[in-house]
Model the fold of this input.
Amino acid sequence: MPLTDTAIRKAKPLARPQKLVDGGGLYLLLQPSGARWWRWDYRRPVTAKRNTLSLGTYPETTLADARTRRDAARRQLAGGIDPGESRKAAKAAGVERSANSFEVVAREWLAKRNWVEGYRVKVAAWLANDVFPWIGDRPVMSLTAPDFLKVARRVEDRGAVESAHRILQNCGQVMRYAIATGRAERNPVADLRGALSTPPERHRAALTDPQDVGGLLRAIDSYAGSFVTKCALKLAPMLFVRPGELRHAEWGEFDLDKAEWNIPATKMKMGVPHLVPLSMQAVAVMRELQVLTGRGKYVFPSARGDGRPMSNNAVLSALRRMGFEKGEMSGHGFRAMARTILDEVLGFRPDYIEHQLAHAVRDPNGRAYNRTAHLHERRKMMQVWSEYLDSLKE
Done:
């Protein structure tokens, strides 16, 4: 006699599991604990071996639901398909799709980047906030150019045009990684060149007129704040590294006898180690500072303790206290200053300058230069640059 909902609700658990039979191989297995499991017994095609398929639990799976699932399984069986094996295959496919989702591949790709930590955190936030909610659970193989364009458009529409371009660039890098690891066949992001509006050109505030630079250098020499900050201000124009690279400098990275600063890949924006030749003037500043901070880890320790570097606003705040406004000079401005004057005034080769700026310079064969490329010429350039700065100051 077929089961009814009333009979199921009235059934009481016994000391042993009991079967409440419905028909067609379907029954409700009532456990001593009170748990109720729908089961369906059938014989496998070809081998005719007996097998049992779980169809859910009661009351989450109602009697009507259980009968519907049983009938669907019987149709598979009639077609020569083993319902149990079919379910295993579907589950395996789901696991595979999950392992190949855009979010999984993107996080794997991100973990392999040798970026400075601050930039890694920024990219991770972009992906988590603006990409994963929309396409994170999609298999990378199934994603198309319109899928990525919709993601970028959402960012663009809120006015963050530059961020939209960067996010699209990151998505393209993830897809290239998916291709390299055998989880995608092509990169649809490549089809979106020119699809977004052009971001407004952004210039870092910088002094590039030699007369103005001389005034800045004299102001630095007269700076009355922290000695550590004053040394950072003196070195910033001579070395023209990124502000984060300067403030995170560690004594263990310097060889003052060789006049070299070797910045490891983990601290560089592009994840490539960088060598900065030091002029005699830079070494002199470093040796003077070494007396004060040389026993600690950081060249420019925080005023709040030697265990961390100086604040990212220390140099910028010092510039403001000296009277240089936001639109006039910035921490990054020392790089633009050096790039412009080394090229337009001192006449150094642009590839020497770009390499010293740690930009992606390539040789005539398209290969990236290594950290020691043109080292002899760059040493001379850095010494001439420091002497030129001295002449402007005087």
Notes: Residues 161-180 form the longest helix (20 residues).
